[in-house]
Amino acid sequence: MIHAPVLLFVYNRPAHVVQAVASLQQNKLAAQSPLFIYSDAAKDEESRLSVEETRKFIRTVTGFESVTECLRTGIIDIGIFR
To answer: Which InterPro entries would you find in this protein's record (predicted)?
Structure first.
């Protein structure tokens, strides 16, 4: 059976990302599901440290069929809420 991929959008709230990933890992099909984590670049210096902390955490995520990081590196903010 092919399982649907999971897409997680993250930005600058590392504690929330930890909680979200922990919840996703509890799903009984997590180990058979690919996870894609999309992280926007920091839009300003104030957000930079939180974005870096969030990205540091997502590099450690396991428990899924695969984990793919999609990291924006420029200052272009293409967040989903406009």
So the answer is: Nucleotide-diphossugar_trans (IPR029044)
